[in-house]
Design a protein that fits this description.
With 192 residues, this protein is α+β, with helices and mostly antiparallel strands. It has 5 helices and 5 strands. It has a 5-stranded mixed sheet with strand order 2-1-5-3-4, sandwiched between helices. Strand 3 and strand 4 form a beta hairpin. The N and C termini lie far apart (54 Å).
């Protein structure tokens, strides 16, 4: 039963992984705490709680965000995707499968945030967004090659205390290749 809102709390409705959740929250409640403490969606991890490690990365309207710095009330009306919403039923998302196949994790604590960030990185790259290491930033140049340096720079907001970075870079590269292949195949089928 929802409690009546006070001057420092509200009843909000969040859309998370395609489902609507209505809950009372204090206005100071972060999205991370709402996910973990109020909704029992514990895949999103609390790391530094200061927005510096990336363990709590989720997608807000398809863009990555550190949920420890995002207020839950500010996420109302937006589509939140957590690690629990990435797979298609029992079928892992290609990014998840690449992390699994290439050992892109050790302890696994940062992995949900790494995967959510990787999903956004791949889409940002495909859209032609440059990074700090992109040499040609002219829009007509199209997306730069997704080199290891590009991946490292684009994933730099996510820390891995175990040091699985080599495998993480390989996993992101493999998933990006799979996305490019799928997009090319789909485009050819649409033309035919």
């Amino acid at each position: 039963m929802a409690t009546a809102p006070s001057s420092t709390s509200s009843v909000i409705t969040l859309t998370i992984n395609g489902e609507k959740y209505t809950l009372p929250v204090d206005h100071r409640t972060t999205l991370l705490d709402a996910l973990r403490e109020h909704l029992d969606l514990t895949g999103t991890k609390k790391g530094c709680d200061q927005g510096q490690c990336g363990a709590c990365t989720v997608l807000l309207d398809g863009r990555r965000a550190v949920s420890c710095l995002q207020l839950a009330v500010a996420a109302e009306g937006r589509e939140v995707t957590t690690i629990e919403g990435v797979a298609d039923g029992d079928r892992l998302h290609p990014v998840q499968q690449a992390f699994l196949d290439l050992d892109g994790y050790q302890c696994g604590y940062c992995t949900p945030g790494q995967i959510c960030s990787a999903l956004a990185v791949i889409e940002e790259h495909a859209a032609g967004w440059p990074s700090a290491v992109t040499t040609d930033v002219h829009p007509e140049a199209g997306p730069p090659p997704l080199t290891a340096d590009e991946i490292r720079e684009r994933m730099s907001g996510n820390l891995c205390r175990c040091g699985a970075y080599v495998s993480i870079v390989q996993a992101v590269a493999r998933a990006a290749e799979a996305r490019a292949t799928t997009t090319t195949t789909t485009s050819k089928e649409a033309v035919a």
